[in-house]
Write a structure and sequence with these properties.
Number of strands: 16
Distance between the termini: 22 Å
Strand content: 35-45%
Order of helices and strands: HEEEEEEEEEEEEEEEE
Number of helices: 1
Structural class: mainly beta
């Protein structure tokens, strides 16, 4: 059992607590080794049609509270990857918005690491680029993560040092409607940014300046981004997690996709 736990630990960045019971039963209990680095965790579990707690409440230890849900998005019990429900974004504008926080300033230097990951299922992939899963914006879009009209993954940002915006776009991701995908992006301490579809790296780049523009008024946007909620996503999002300070995967070889909901501690 300990060997199995260590193998899982290597795959998922988790610690496992082994407990012996009075009847010599052995249990492997998962915990997140990087829990203190998780700055947002959303399982979107709640009552069908809900636009408030608990479905839209941050479950990370940072406790960002309950997001505002201004434009028709809601908790949907008709479809989910894990748990009883997911976020249904309807493609009009922001699905959910969290208040500004420096927790969402993911990269203020080339060596700052992070990971953004979630399950996504598209109902429609709109002609605009990108269809945003999550972003950080105020006057400018400081960073965003989404899918292009052609079904490729895209991570973009405005460099902290100024200059033109940067976009890392996958090749061969082939995101289509009607399927759940595990999509992730991470950046390691060398400044390399990698895109992953279902655990396979499908794009990468090491920009000369991988620090991101920061604005004190920048909130976290789910399902769209920008001042007017542009580039809206039409589909479902489940198990959204943002980890700051850690590149959980950092591998050209990819990783094993999680088979359950993320740990809550």
């Amino acid at each position: 059992m300990s060997t199995s736990c260590e193998a899982l630990d290597a795959l998922h960045g988790a610690n496992y607590v082994v407990e012996f019971t009075a009847v010599a039963l052995l249990k492997c209990e998962v915990a997140d080794a990087f829990w203190d680095n998780v700055v947002l965790l959303m399982g979107f579990d709640g009552l069908n049609g809900s636009t408030g707690a608990p479905g839209f409440t941050d479950e990370s230890s940072r406790e960002h509270g309950t997001a505002s849900v201004p434009f028709g998005a809601h908790i949907d019990t008709s479809d989910s990857k894990f748990g009883s429900s997911s976020l249904r974004a309807v493609g009009d504008s922001f699905a959910a918005v969290f208040s500004p926080s420096h927790d969402f300033w993911l990269s203020t230097s080339n060596s700052d690491a992070f990971t953004i990951e979630c399950w996504v299922k598209f109902s429609n992939i709109a002609a605009h680029d990108p269809n945003v899963i999550v972003g950080n914006s105020f006057v400018d879009v400081d960073w965003h993560f989404g899918v292009t009209a052609a079904g490729e993954m895209r991570f973009g940002f405005h460099p902290g040092g100024g200059g033109a915006s940067v976009a890392i776009i996958s090749s061969g991701a082939s995101i289509a409607t009607g399927n759940w995908y595990f999509l992730a992006v991470d950046k390691d301490s060398s400044g390399k940014i990698r895109l992953y579809r279902n655990g396979v790296m499908v794009g990468s780049a090491t920009p000369a300046d991988s620090s991101f523009e920061t604005e004190d008024g920048s909130g976290l946007d789910i399902g769209a981004t920008g001042l007017v909620g542009a580039f809206a996503l039409n589909g479902w999002i489940d198990e959204l997690r943002i980890t700051k300070g850690v590149a959980r995967y950092a591998s050209d070889a990819g990783f094993s996709v999680p088979t359950g909901a993320f740990p809550r501690a």
